[in-house]
Design brief:
about 260 residues, alpha/beta, Rossmann fold, seven-stranded parallel β-sheet, 9 helices, 7 strands, about 50% helix, globular
């Protein structure tokens, strides 16, 4: 029986690139997203018979159970990886960010990930050596000014990953996170609150590089098959990780300047 991966946020970006890579390597893929058209577009890029798609909101706990029941039934119970990837970006000063945007970001980026972990555990526990993979961010290495809400949610994902990797070891489930810097995805098209600039324009103006999604997909593969709890992706993420460990004062000064 082919191995299987279930990916939230599979309609575009990191989720789509990861689905393509895993399918190319013989895995069955389950894709979930609220974007039905995007799911259909991703499906067309994958080998026939290797993918199942589900319109699902990660905030919907009933939807999680129904969808995972359907996917594991289609894979004869084989469930090797749950990729908690769905997320949204919120940029701009906290004081300029509306409460609706804050609540939505926390609900999708934190509660949605918790839902996937808690509900997904029972399914993962049926397959020896299964893995829960979460998408964190370089903003979880050191809090990023202008991305306070987003950083807070990704710190939560980082902490959850570390906690569950210990907590679930007795169940034979590995828990991993990819920690990408700025990735070339549609999330960067969002507008920074309090301005008319996109997140992409703000990132580029600060001098940060944009990492292609294919590199993140490879990092997801490496994380699932490796021993590291966190897999950093992109030059900025690696530099921030080193600076946060060995020169936090320098990193803080640099981020204030940016």
């Amino acid at each position: 029986m082919a191995k299987s991966i279930f990916i939230t946020g599979g309609a575009s970006g990191i989720g789509r690139a990861t689905a393509i890579l895993f399918a190319q390597r013989g895995w069955r893929v389950g894709l979930a997203d609220i974007d039905e058209a995007g799911l259909a577009a991703t499906r067309r890029l994958l080998p026939p018979g290797m993918v199942e798609t589900y319109v699902m909101d990660v905030r919907d706990r009933t939807g999680w159970g129904t969808t995972l029941d359907a996917f594991t039934a289609s894979s004869a119970g084989q469930f090797d990886v749950l990729f908690n990837n769905a997320g949204i970006a919120t940029g701009g000063p906290l004081t300029a960010t509306g409460f609706d945007a804050i609540d939505r970001t926390v609900a999708i980026n934190v509660t949605g990930v918790l839902n996937g972990a808690k509900i997904g555990h029972a399914y993962l526990a049926r397959t020896p050596g299964a893995c829960l993979l979460n998408t964190a961010s370089a903003s979880a290495i050191y809090g990023s000014a202008g991305l306070a809400t987003y950083s807070a949610t990704k710190f939560a994902v980082r902490g959850l990953t570390e906690a569950l990797d210990v907590e679930w070891a007795r169940d034979g489930i590995r828990v991993r996170a990819i920690v990408p810097a700025f990735i070339e995805t549609p999330l960067l098209d969002g507008t920074v609150d309090g301005s008319n600039r996109t997140i992409r324009e703000t990132v580029s103006a600060a001098g940060f590089e944009l990492t292609p999604v294919e590199a993140v997909a490879q990092a997801a593969w490496d994380a699932v098959h490796g021993t590291r709890v966190h897999t950093y992706v992109g030059r900025t993420a690696h530099i921030m990780a080193l600076a946060a460990r060995f020169a936090p004062a320098m990193l803080r000064k640099r981020m204030r300047r940016d």
